[in-house]
C-alpha cells in the first residue's frame, strides 16, 4: 500500500472505533440488554467502503444536484465534510435543512441498517448535496455495512404489541441489490422492507 493507502487504512480504523463507541451508546439509549448489539451484528465479514467525492463548480445549481436525494444503505456513514463549502442538506418534515459546517468534526449519518435493527427508532435521513457556483467541494464518506451474507431485522427487544415490527427480515446482500435500482429510480430502498 502506498502512503495514501496507509493513511486511508489508519483513518478507517480510527473511524471504526468512533462508530463502535457510538453504536454502543445507541444500544444503551435503547436499553438493549447487550450494549454490543449493533457492534456484534456486523458479523465476521462486515463491509467497509470509502467514497471520496469531488463536487466541481457548477454554473447552474438549480438544474443539477451534486448528489440526488437518497438514504445511505449503511449501518452508519462517517462523513468528513469540506469545511469551506456547505451543500449537504437533510429532509425533515418535508423541508430541506442545511447541515451546518463544523470544522474538524466528523458527521455521522444513521443508515438504513440501523433504522431496520432499531425498528424505526433511529431514522435514516433522506439527504442530498447541492452544487455551488463558486466553490468546488470535497467529502470523504466511510460506509459501514453488516456482512452481506447476514440477515438483519428489528431487534426482538424493540418489538412488542404496542410497536410491532415495522420492517421485514432481509438479507443484506439482497438489500444492496435493490439499492442501486432504487437510487437510479429516485426511490427509497427502505420502503421495500416496510411492513
Ligand atoms: O458529500 C457529502 O457531504 C455527502 C455524501 C453522501 O451523502 C454519500 O456519499 O452518501
Ligand atoms: Fe449519503
UniProtKB/TrEMBL annotation:
- Domain of life the protein comes from: Eukaryota
Q: Write out the entry's keywords from A to Z.
A: Iron, Metal-binding
Q: Which Pfam families match?
A: 2OG-FeII_Oxy
Read off the InterPro entries from this record. IPNS-like_FE2OG_OXY, IPNS-like_sf, Oxoglu/Fe-dep_dioxygenase_dom, Plant_2OG-oxidoreductases
Q: Which residues form the Fe2OG dioxygenase domain?
A: 46-146
**Recorded GO MF terms:** metal ion binding
Q: Does the keyword Iron apply?
A: yes
Gene3D superfamilies, A to Z? B-lactam Antibiotic, Isopenicillin N Synthase, Chain
Q: What PANTHER family does its record include?
A: OXOGLUTARATE/IRON-DEPENDENT DIOXYGENASE (PTHR47991)
Name used for this protein in its record: Fe2OG dioxygenase domain-containing protein
Native source organism of the sequence: Aegilops tauschii subsp. strangulata (Goatgrass)
Amino acid at each position: 500500500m502506498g502512503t495514501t493507502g496507509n493513511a486511508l487504512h489508519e483513518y478507517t480504523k480510527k473511524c471504526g472505533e468512533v462508530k463502535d463507541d457510538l453504536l454502543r451508546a445507541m444500544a444503551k439509549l435503547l436499553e438493549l440488554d447487550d450494549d454490543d448489539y449493533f457492534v456484534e451484528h456486523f458479523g465476521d465479514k462486515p463491509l467497509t467502503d470509502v467514497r471520496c467525492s469531488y463536487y466541481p463548480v457548477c454554473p447552474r445549481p438549480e438544474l443539477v444536484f451534486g448528489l440526488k436525494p437518497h438514504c445511505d444503505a449503511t449501518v452508519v456513514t462517517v462523513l468528513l465534510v469540506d469545511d469551506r463549502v456547505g451543500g449537504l442538506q437533510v429532509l425533515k418534515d418535508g423541508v430541506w435543512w442545511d447541515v451546518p459546517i463544523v470544522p474538524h468534526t466528523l458527521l455521522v449519518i444513521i443508515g438504513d441498517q440501523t433504522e431496520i435493527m432499531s425498528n424505526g427508532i433511529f431514522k435514516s435521513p433522506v439527504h442530498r448535496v447541492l452544487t455551488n457556483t463558486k466553490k468546488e467541494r470535497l467529502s470523504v464518506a466511510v460506509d459501514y455495512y453488516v456482512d452481506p451474507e447476514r440477515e438483519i431485522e428489528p431487534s426482538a427487544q424493540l418489538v412488542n404489541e404496542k410497536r410491532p415490527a415495522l420492517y421485514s427480515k432481509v438479507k443484506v446482500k439482497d438489500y444492496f441489490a435493490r439499492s442501486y435500482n432504487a437510487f437510479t429510480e429516485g426511490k427509497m430502498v427502505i420502503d421495500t422492507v416496510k411492513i
